[in-house]
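Preliminary data (for renewal application), hypoxanthine complex.
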Amino acid sequence: MSIHITAPVGSIAPVVLMPGDPLRAKLIATEFLTDAALVSSTRNIFYYTGLYKGQRISVGASGMGCPSIGIYSYELYSNYDVQHIIRIGTCGAYHNNLQLFDIINVNKAASESTFAKEAWGYAEEVMLPQGNAYTVINETAAARQQAVLDTAVHTSDYFYRANPELPAIAAAHKCEVVEMESFALFANARYLGKSAACLLTVSDIIPTQQKISPDQREQSLLPMIELALEAGIRL
Ligand code: HPA
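Predicted structure:
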């Protein structure tokens, strides 16, 4: 057990898929895994372990933002000996060259968050995917002939803000999209010598205010979830 995850040690697989939303973790476990067992539900942050194509894999939520994913990823890596975490989330596109439902394999995360500096002394404002998860995702996508964009992400600490301009950090690092977790996940994996990658589906186009509708949301994330599962069993 760890402070925020009450699964018995040994009940979480070395590969964890990590959506933000606990109900999405439940949906993935129910729809895609066989023999799925709920192994932790502390704070209603659900973790499941089951089989995908016969291989053991876990899925559990990160919650929203760097502080939350910072806690769950740290405890998984250090208390449960997890080797790989693939975050599977949604993002907003800063420009209208991207389209709703595009899938992104994050190649770097830039942030004004103090997480990496204050937690681990990493002063850089860019964190990279760690280990082989990012490469295996790209190889898996190529083998499936599934289109995946290699894109830089802005990991933001805010969802709502007064200024509608492109944030300076996104302009400086040519970030095409924004989400709220990759930077902290990559920083933890770097510090602990583990593997981490992040797949995102574009759920909104910020300049045009186009959005995936609530009833499209579940279906629209399935191609990304399948890619993460297929990559997960190759790790
Ligand atoms: N901002 C931050 N995170 C997000 C967004 C956004 O517009 N869309 C999906 N995740």
